[in-house]
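re: ur question from earlier - yeah i can do the single chain one, its not a big deal. heres the input i used so u can compare w yours
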Amino acid sequence: MRPWSLRSKKEDIMPKAVKLGSVLAFVSLRVGLLLALPVLAWGQDPRDSIIIESKTVAAGLTGTPAFEVLVYTTNKDSLAYMVLNCTTRTVSGSGYALLNRTGTNLLTFGSVVRTLTPFGASFTAFSGVSYNDVSPDAFLVAGGSDGVDPGTNWPPNAYRTPVWAIKFRASSAAPGQMLINPNATVASQVSSYFTNTRAIDVPVNKVSGILTVQFAACDPLPYNEASIGAGETFCYGFISTNCSNYCSNFSLVSGPGSISPSGAYCVSGLCAGTYPVTIAADCGPAGTQTYSFTLKVTPVTPAVACPVNETIQGNQPYSAQASVSGGVPSHTFAKVAGPAGLSVSPTGAVSWTPSAADAGPAHSVTISVT
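and the output i got, formated as tokens:
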């Protein structure tokens, strides 16, 4: 909120002044993430968990990396160290993915894992000596905090937090599913674990991830994701003459928005959050194909246009209009502070008839918009 001021003078032959400034809207958008914690097993605390993201990607992706899979943790105590043992294997069809490598084709911690928090960025280690780009396969990564750098400490935190992103450089050309299992036996480690502040190994609950590889609809979104601002309109066409199979009769299976039979998808008015979307289409000899992607919607602070400063006559009606653009409509205006008798409608209409007693000092006015 930003105030503006109003000033009025007493002399009848002089204009009564009302000074208007600017209005700033305060809009707070907070997306909470409620974690469904794993079931307690073997006496473990459900707040000590390693969770591998399940994700759908298009067949035939390539890049450096082509896509990433997030590694989440929840923890009861302060963590000093974390070990992740992974196997990757095809569980249906031909779905598989190749681990990312450096430009010289080496497997290193930095080429395979991207750190997302200060914790896990120190004491990083990687073992991929047996990783050979076939299914099944295995690798181990480890990392933790720096004892001399408090900024890398991992405090007690029972909320699901992404710590690492496992990077893959390609997906299989054919559809199917790959299991990313953190329960592997690698480099003599029998299970994934945390080390808490007392240097005691803590076995943790583990949630495997499923990587689903599927034929993309025509012209798939890069990395199967799109990012837009809250309230913005997003449109995309999912059909092209470059498709190996000409797709038609598109339909929306799940998620927000709508799609035309020809593949024109549009959505608008979304609040901040993450929205999975699945569409389907008739792709000729290939039959009905589905394609899933994610809309990531970020908060947008509305831009407020406020009444301009001006001089008005005392004992004469004054009106002005505050407006707002951006964000998720509809917006509601309200008076927070100002002279008695001044009103602000929910649509931003400002009205006031200053009296002779209002002349002289500037009057401060504050308007909120939500």
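The CA atoms of residues 74 and 158 lie 5 Å apart. not sure if urs matches, ping me
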